Amino acid sequence: MFPRKWMAIPFLFSFFCLSKNGTCRYNPKYSAAKVVGFMSIPPSENALMKAVATVGPISVGIDIKHKSFQFYKGGMYYEPDCSSTNLNHAVLVVGYGEESDGRKYWLVKNSWGRDWGMDGYIKMAKDWNNNCGIASDASYPIV
């Protein structure tokens, strides 16, 4: 999720975040698109599913304070102690699906690089009581 004050979407090569001090640098001359507003999605997994299907990738806030997320390597992710209101990390929901055993998931892209999770992605449990707040704060830019 990009800070709303920038009001532009940068090309990936022009956006730098330094994890050592938590600061990000952005040069507006390298904007890929001008943002004219934002659309918030109602806080429900059904509304999020409709938005992903009709709009495309959706920016969401989630709770990642648990080591189970930080050290995720693969498989279906469900953390029963996640908060649906104390959100502390932004990710991108790029799709959803269903495992052969019927368990549904959100396909989520993280910003921690390809060495984390499944090549930078995680399958987060879908329709499990808004696990980790995945549908609590969802939005997309209007360009």
From TrEMBL:
Q: Could you tell me which PROSITE patterns the record lists for this protein?
A: THIOL_PROTEASE_ASN, THIOL_PROTEASE_HIS
Recorded GO MF terms: cysteine-type peptidase activity
CDD domains reported in the protein's UniProt record: Peptidase_C1A (cd02248)
Residues covered by the Peptidase C1A papain C-terminal domain: 2-142
Q: Which UniProt keywords apply?
A: Disulfide bond, Signal
As recorded in UniProt, coiled-coil segments are none
The UniProt entry, under Gene3D superfamilies, shows: Cysteine proteinases
Q: What is this protein called?
A: RCG24317, isoform CRA_b
InterPro entries per UniProt? Papain-like_cys_pep_sf (IPR038765), Pept_asp_AS (IPR025661), Pept_his_AS (IPR025660), Peptidase_C1A (IPR013128), Peptidase_C1A_C (IPR000668), Peptidase_C1A_papain-like (IPR039417)
- Superkingdom as given in the UniProt entry: Eukaryota
Pfam family name, one? Peptidase_C1
Family (UniProt): Belongs to the peptidase C1 family.
Which BP terms does GO give this entry? proteolysis
The signal sequence is 1-24
